[in-house]
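Incident log, structure service

09:12 report received: a user says their structure output differs between two submissions of the same chain.
09:20 pulled the input from the user's history:
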Amino acid sequence: MVNPLLQRSELPFQWPDFSKLGAEDYLHAVKVGVAVQNEEIQVILDNAETAGFENTFLVLERSGQVLRRALMTYFTVLSAHGTESMLAVQSEISGLYTRQEDEIQLNSQLFVRLKKVDLSVLDGEDLRLATETLKRFELAGATLDEARKSELKELNARISELSTRFSTAALESLNAHAVHFASPEELAGLDQSAIQAAATAALEAGHEGGYLLTLVSPTQQPVMAELKLSASRRKVFESSMTRGLDDDTTVSLARDMAQLRAQRAALLGFATHADAVLAESTAPDTRAVATRLAELTAAATANAQREAAALAELAGVERIDPWDWSFYSQAVLRERYELDSVALRPYFELERVLHDGVFATATKLYGISFAERTDLPLYHPDVRVWNVIDADGSALGLFTGDFFARETKKGGAWMTSLRDAASDLGELPVVTNTLNIGKPAAGQPALLTLDETHTLFHEFGHALHGLFSNGKYASLSGTSVPRDFVEFPSQVNEMWVMHPEVVASYAIHHETGEVLPPETIKRIRDAQLWGEGFATTEYLAASVLDWAWHTLEPGQQVSDPLAFERESLVNAGFDPDLIPPRYRTAYFQHIFANGYSAGYYSYIWSEVLDADTVQWFEENGGLLRENGQRFRTELLSRGNTREPLESYEHFRGRAAEVEPLLRRRGLVNA
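09:34 re-ran on a clean worker, output below:
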């Protein structure tokens, strides 16, 4: 059988034929793709004509389509359905990809030819492609001598290997730390459908009986807000906190990666890995990021201490325990704001939230519509696919939703692309949203928490960024923007979750048909600042931890990673015994496996733009078609075809201001 990845798929939108793909097909396609791209690069090098945009930059941009197709498909599936066979080839595929990147970007002959192209005759996206390509080569080490290039290749290969091992070990630890309870009494506070789902999970995991609560990626587990017994909450919390510490594997891998990244940064001429990362970001320098984190930390931890005092008083203790925080925080919401998160869940049924909330909002803002299709082969039965149709009736792309948690899926939520919007290649976008919502028992609806509802809107904001991309070149398409800008459009899309016109359409009790009462919506809004001290603090603690690991100086050794973690947090003003970071070193996949190293700060950096944009929507009438069109035209469609902050200023009419963020987070005195 011919490997279907070796040529463009004949299925709609070049959808991969997953029915014919196995792990070995991905590996084979990557190997073939490397060989084919090397031949395409050689054509550039053998060209005796004067180096120009078309015969150099454009040929390079179009090269490697077999490899690109294989990698985009493989890594999309690996994260969402990392079966044993898929994991078995991960190290080899990652190694091949890393080596190929080095072979191209460290190719002296190719770099010399690229530098010979006269950029003064270029403009628009052609000029942007050329300047971004040169920048990428230079930051990758193209100007190094051959001896240092050889050293750099070895470092890149080693870091890639460790990252793959970290990813695999973290997923194994996440699954291994699922918490088993013997009796339903220990799960008091959960509704019957959740208890039944836990019973099913226990049997599927090989237990003879009992109840299994699976974990999600962050330290805090949503179920702790519902469990009535402190002992049960503590059991879940401690299992979450000790992931990766059983055999010290992921902690050591993280430490080694951070030290190797520091060594690589020095080789490339940077003081730290963070400095190297910021060379491709919108933040000006490490001092600016560190200052912003420190300023926000002081205000956030002060808020958190006030919240802790209120919780301790409610619980009748001198100091609240970290496993009891979310439970008593929910009690504050019930008593002070008359809100009950558990009682809210029946109003957030997945299908309604998706169709009458997420999709309907996109229709009102942008004029697009959605039609589910069931004719495409899938990598897992839970995957769903929709045609996305533009306002003029033309095909915009495909949207894929993979919503339910499973053992083969990484924790968290994310967006990826199977295809990019690139007119040069004749491609329309195929974007995916992957979440980890607990799968309900058979015959039961999937009910979301309010946080999960926000996540659904958030990830769809990324999807819109990919779907609306309107550029020529794949490497400048959609979400291919600086890391500290990429979260901005997704965060903006969360503004519609509690918008009166939107929430009234989707927040409907799945049994009674009752619309979420307006007074409840008001109480949710009134309560938005409650808990911001905790939420901002746990996020900032993770950002500071990331920054500490990635501002290590070259040669700086960390003998005890856990002591380093604690010292970094305490010195920055955090109390990790009260509020642990959202991710500890041992399971911080964002920075040790998912490309966010020295970049976790980007969520709050992007939130400055987000909060300022929300203010613009509010000032200009909110959920209006003309507002959506402006946001789409000036920002979402632009990708990296021009400087992202330039796109923002075209949209907003000025640079972003920080005050809206400070108000949102309750940090107005920061």
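09:41 both user submissions now match this output. Likely a transient worker issue. Closing.
09:42 reviewer note: The mean pLDDT is 96. The longest helix spans residues 146-176.
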